[in-house]
Amino acid sequence: MRKQGRIRRVVIVLAAGSMVLTACGLKPEVKNSLRASGGRALPPGLSVDPNTGQVVDEQGNVVDPGTVGVDPGTGTDPGTGPGTGPGTGPSAGPGTGPNPSTGPNPTASPTGPVVPPAGQGNTTGIRGGKIHLALHGPLTGAGVPQESFRSGANIYWEKNKIRGMDVVATVFDDEYNPSGAIKACRRAAPDNFLIVGGAGTDQIQACAKDQVVQRGGVPYVSAGVTENGLHGLNNYFAASMTYRQQGPTVVKMAREKGFLQASKGWGLVISSTPNFKDAKESIEAALKAANVPYKYYPVPKTGGDATTVANQLRAEGHETVYFLGQPLFFTEIVQRVGCPQYCPTFTGPGIAMGVNTVANLACANSAGFFKGFYLSPYPGWDDRAKYAPGVQLDDDIEFTIYGVMQSLHQMFNSIPADQPITRESFIAAVARGSYPGGIFNPAVFAGKTRFGGTKAYYLQAKCDIRRWVTAGGPTA
Amino acid sequence: MILAFDVGENLLTPLVTGIIQGSVYGLLGLGLVLLYKGNRIFNFAQGEFGTVAALVVYAFASGSKFLPKMPYAVAVLLGVLAGILMGLLTERLVVRPLFRQPKVTLVVATAGVALLSIAVEGFFAGAAPTPVRATLEGEAINTRLLRVTKQDMLVVAVLLVLAVASALFFKFTQTGTAILAVSQEPTATSLVGISVNRISSLTWGMAGFLGGVAGILLTGTNRVVLPGVLTGLALIPAFTAAVFGGITSLPGAFVGGVVIGIIQQIGGTNIPADIIPSANAVVVFLVLLGVLLVKPTGLLGKEV
Questions:
Q1: What is the C-alpha to C-alpha distance for residues B200 and B208, in angstroms, rounded to an integer?
Q2: Where residue A401 falls among pLDDT bands split at 50, 70, 90?
Q3: Any chain B CB within 8 A of the CB of A369?
Q4: CB count, 10 Å around CB of B264?
Q5: Is the pTM of this model over 0.90?
Q6: Nearest chain B residue (CA) to A301
Q7: Rounded to a whole number, what is the distance in Å from the CA of B148 to chain A's nearest CA?
Q8: Cα separation, B130 vs B187, whole angstroms
Q9: What ipTM did this prediction achieve?
Q10: How many CB atoms within 10 Å of residue A434?
């Protein structure tokens, strides 16, 4: 009895201790303080902005913790941040002055070039001779090979550098939901130069416009998804065609591939979310212009009841189904429509459905009869050797991420050689830049738009190999 | 606005598909009702008993990683055993130490088991969804209005058999009576020589079995398995079905599941989604609310 009481007391003390530690860890100011200062005390006059997690001085100017002399007792911290002014190179000593880094955030027009004042700029994420980049994507629950997010980036940067600096890409799990994406991006922002949105319209939108990302002036690059809520963001760049831009291209692909004209019309199965409104309007306009009848089937954002939708599609007998929504819901619908007896051609814009995991499931769910044509900003897996010669890649996610890194490299290289790499100089250079791409199609921003995608590939599902292959394009 | 009503399209199709869909909920709901009868708790880990079973079936049927490839029937057997083992382990490691604690503690603990299970499944199986085969391949009906696979028919049949067998078990066997007695008065039950621990293990083992069967059949129907799939897809509808049918009634889980499925399908088919988005979910909760207001014990439920 007494022994049990002792055990209970020990358990209570341990539980209470762990709760206190957890609670401390969850308090943003504690976590940010520890993160920003590398776990050390900050010098007097400096504090951590609870919103951005960045170290700021009394005037609110952001200070690079790498250049801050911490632990005044020793004064030996070498500082890891690179020099902050042109020609100074990496800082070598225990710098104490505030990083001129950010100063006032330039507030140029969203599409116009933003030039930082000479010698100033935010160099967060550049330390120890390395540039740190963040990617966020669904590493859990959404069905993509998770390791490939990491390995695709690593494979590219193993053989490439930016101005002699190594590049380190860290992947953050956004749990395939917007709040997870915001958490991931807020974790990434204080330590990384820029953020790349891996997948998921809502996640990309949530992260790109998040106030912490905005206030930190963190460059944010993603594949083109919705345009809703992303207009007017100074930091945002879509490197491929958005859903709105892809509407006419989907119809063009359908015409070229022979599934445009349908006596029973097209079924448009689109998640009823504001973020797909531009996609819906775009495909409706394109179908009207082509004189093709259609019927719209709104489905809940989370997927909903695939059986009901499949029954309705089968009853209507649509020969072509445009689908934009959750990939797993898509594969459920493919299963329930009842191929081969009723087996419409599925089509739509890139990027989510064009993943080989989706083709694999759709083919398995349809006894190999799945017919699919989707647009994609990158070519099919069958073309990997052409677009990434000599590179050993294991799957299409690696291939895609490798391509994203290739495009990012071009963006970094467009920063004028006489300017330091800062978040501001990056944004300014990309905003007026045009990029040839490689695996990804060319992107043209040219001071006019942040939705720079120009072309898309046609992908066709091949159920004998359960993958998407290139079936045409790239075309606008 | 006059909506065209087609008896086949608007009534027959959702009726049949509702029965099939509802059977899946009922199958998972059976395990929930069993544990409610036995322990007076809602088991949030019930879905994961099924997911683990389905993942084990996939692992052995495909011979993934270091595992030997086995005939599908053997893999199914191992999957069901894995479900039972999950139930037993949950009982031994979580439920039994907390048995005398307030029921809410136990309920939260089962939610913890579910979350832990999903993490462990992800660790071993990865997050990517994996295509799996149906237990029975082929289609029974495939017309413009209706598509019923052999797997669908298997699910309905298995649910029927299990619901009847479970009800008979509680009505006619001493063990069934002992389970009910333990749930009502554990101390008095142990005083008459019934081992509470053994009964508790038996109940959770049976729940693991029911969850395992549900998991294997549901993933076979959806043709896909991934960590947390049963919890994500069917646990909430299964809870609804169990409460709707009467949380103390095993046949109620069957009836509740089927009725919920039919309401969902008829609602989803006939209420345009641009008028009420997710109409199938809305009508289910409206009907559930109505039933509970009029008959709080559910359709077939009664106090033991």
A1: 12
A2: very high
A3: no
A4: 28
A5: no
A6: B278
A7: 9
A8: 47
A9: 0.76
A10: 16
